Amino acid sequence: VFPSLAQAQASVANEVYQELGQPSIFLFCPTEYCSSLCSPSPSQSCYLQTIGQELLPGIGVIWTGPKVVSQELSAELLEEVEDVLRRRPVIWDNLYANDYDCRRVFLGPYMGRAPGLMSRLHGLLLNPNCELQANFIPIHTLGTWFRSELGSCAHPDHAGMEGALGDSQGAQDGSYSPQEALELALRDWVAEINQQALEPGK
């Protein structure tokens, strides 16, 4: 019926989207959802070109970055993806995912994401550790990164960020510092642990 997989997927996704009344959030995960799965590259992928052309503009498209688990996300890559998809991508961030190796737990700060990425994104989903309580630092530092991104968008000169991030140097110049975000998260996590220890029955 369809000349290509991409056209088949776009047709089905469009029909479901319209049948549901074109909801404000409707996400499509393409078969080529990261650069390493594209042939030969995102911008030259016939599959992604078709998805970008055929998929209705209200449908969000998920992207994980250069790889399935991407250590870095650059503005240049997101610009390339936005151009071929004809929309800003929704980042499905697997930085902390450990469902593929449950012997590992990731406790470091949110990092490796270039400043100013917010303007290139339609949204961001964080795929966390499978162990719930191991995600305090990842989610806390993601929040700090997000506040710094919002502050950079609202204040291009980075003024006024002290209140959002504290009195550290990184906060003063409006930039995100993974180390400072980690220290903030650890401080709050220790306070949370101490509070739980004082609860009856703990």
Automatic annotation (TrEMBL):
Matches recorded under PROSITE patterns: GH84 (PS52009)
GO molecular function: beta-N-acetylglucosaminidase activity
InterPro entries listed in its UniProt record: GH (IPR017853), Glycosyl_Hydrolase_84 (IPR051822), O-GlcNAcase_cat (IPR011496)
Residues in coiled coil: none
Superkingdom classification of source: Eukaryota
One record GO biological process: glycoprotein metabolic process
GH84 domain mapped to chain residues: 1-150
Name used for this protein in its record: OGA GlcNAcase
